[in-house]
Amino acid sequence: MARHVKVQRGNTLRCKGWKQEAILRMLENNLENAEKPEELIIYGGTGKAARNWNCYDAIVDALKNLGHDETLIVQSGKPVAIFKTWTTAPRVLIANSNLVPHWSTWENFRELEQLGLTMYGQMTAGSWCYIGTQGIIQGTYETFAACARKHFKSTLQGKIVLTGGLGGMGGAQPLAVTMNQGVCLAVECDEKHIDRRINAGFCDKKIKNIDEALELVTQAKKEKTPLSVGLLGNCATIMPRLVKDGFRPDVVTDQTSAHDELHGYVPAKYYGDTLNEAAALRKKNPTDYIKQSMFSIKQHCKALLDFQKKGSVVFDYGNNLRGQALKAGLTNAFDYQGFVPAYIRPMFCVGRGPFRWLALTGNPEDIIKTDQAALKLFPKDGVLTNWIALAEKHLPWEGLPARVCWLGYGERAEFALLINKMVRENEIGPIAITRDHLDSGSVASPYRETEAMRDGSDAIADWPLLNALLNCAAGADSVQIHNGGGVGIGLSTHAGMVVVCDGTKETDERIKRVFTTDPGIGVARHADAGYKEAIELVQKTEIRIPMIKN
Ligand code: NAD
Q1: Which end of the chain, N or C, is less packed with Cβ atoms under 10 Å?
Q2: What tens digit of pLDDT does each residue of 411-425 get?
Q3: Is 190 close to ligand 1, i.e. is its CB under 6 Å away?
């Protein structure tokens, strides 16, 4: 029978303290928000929260019995040991999908997965920090806002954004575009996924006919009214056809699960009712499925290059469509830029990145109160104040009420301390603070976050590992290291962390350390790579960089 985990709300603890209870509720929250909860798949193709249901039950049991000076060790979704450590050490340490570099390919990974030895953790799926689609809406909103700033006088009004994929992450695109006043046409092959985004209020319309969809978006562009349309179809056929028909979107990108050609991407001829056939082929003849998938990815990517040639702004949205197309023989696949060098890197240089927090008792009022606190603390940050107003207006709660906004070095510690004080003074219930692995110092991913680094350090994976070690040393409550999130096995190394605000003074001390080290290593990483903004910021902070004589 299918299991549907729901988060326990309220003040009753099942664990020995709020730190352990918070981590358990975050795990449950992942499953409450999962794309395929029965398979423990949270988002991003096959990004899972636990290796199997027996492991899930064992993790829950371990957390319920975990002492204040113990640390639970989770190896790719399986709880493998509990050790006595320190009260200030992390309660949970997680390593997901890591393979020795030479073996780090999907082929080897799948073999080992078949043997029951590993699990794909994506980014926040396996580290239990997913907060539903709203987590990515903010990042997507920031990205489209930066795109609008760079190319269209700071608004997408009267502009059409063409994209693909309405899954766990991609489902944020329609709303993020309309929040920036634009028109979004999103091609998705699974009707259920379009319905899900419409029911969540993220997408306005579902259309099955390409001409009807084009008419709607063209009209909305003309009238300069925000609109989002989910078009049922397959990108590998629709995108080339749109190029051929002379359709000219202003911006083109993609968030199909192209990073995984077997379990993520759906080859050209399948969509809607024929998805069953794709699923059968995947099972019966995976080699043929992969062959079809790779050919389709190549066609899909080529269409994006064609749009670029005709004048559309085209950027890769972190799903490795270009890398896969290159593998399939499209030699100029990388002729369009990734979204990080295009829009995000300047923010990473000053330690600005995703700061997210969850109301652990399930009370939405806690988030509204912290929203107000953030607005008061950062009144001059226009992107943040605009975002919080839009988020309160447009975003439904998904699972535990949560919020995310981008904050820089210094700001994160300041805001986290304020949240912990609000908990201490009983203004709000306990809060868990976490973030995406996509952040200033926590990821090495040459096709995404570290694409085109100034000093060529794109593939240096020491930084995210140091980030994780440092956050352990600084006293985070949970720390995770993963391989392959976003872009696929072997292509990225990244780390995550959680700090639970239980209102205690001891947590204040942890907050001061962790929210300095976590963005701080990002600033140091960008200073080391020679970015001026990072070098200047280091001089104004307590980060000390040892002098090395040339
Ligand atoms: P997902 O698997 O939940 O959703 C992918 C969607 O694409 C599904 O709805 C699927 O039906 C659809 N799809 C697959 N092939 C298609 C095709 N040929 N035509 C039309 N639709 C197709 O994945 P997700 O969580 O939404 O992530 C999407 C991609 O973005 C992944 O590759 C992921 O690794 C990457 N990602 C990007 C970021 C970022 O910050 N930009 C963050 C996390 C993940």
Answers
A1: C
A2: 999 999 999 999 999
A3: yes
Question: Distance between CA atoms of 77 and 206, rounded to whole angstroms?
Answer: 36
Residue with tokens 């997965």: 113
Looking at the DSSP assignment, which residues form a beta bridge with residue 70? 84
Cβ–Cβ under 8 Å, residues 374 and 384: yes
The C-alpha atoms of residue 441 and residue 340 are separated, in whole angstroms, by 13
Q: In 45-190, which ranges are continuous DSSP H helix?
A: 53-65, 106-114, 133-151, 173-179
DSSP for 203-249, written as a single string: -SEEE--HHHHHHHHHHHHHHT--EEEEEES-HHHHHHHHHHTT---
Q: Which H or E run contains 390? A: helix 382-394
Q: Of the residues 133, 138, 169, which should be mutated to test ligand 1's pocket, given the most ligand atoms within 8 Å of the CB?
A: 169
Beta strand pairing call for 478-483 and 443-444? unpaired
Task: Place domain 155-335 in its CATH homologous superfamily.
Answer: Urocanase like domains (3.40.50.10730)
The Å distance, Cα 481 to ligand 1 centre, comes to: 22
Assigned token pair, 172: 């944020």
203 is catalytic: no
pLDDT tens, residue by residue, 76-133:
999 999 999 999 999 999 999 999 999 999 999 999 999 999 999 999 999 999 998 7
For residues 319 and 255, the answer to whether their CB atoms sit within 8 Å is yes
Rounded Cα distance, 279 and 301, in Å? 23
* Cα dihedral sign, 419-420-421-422: positive
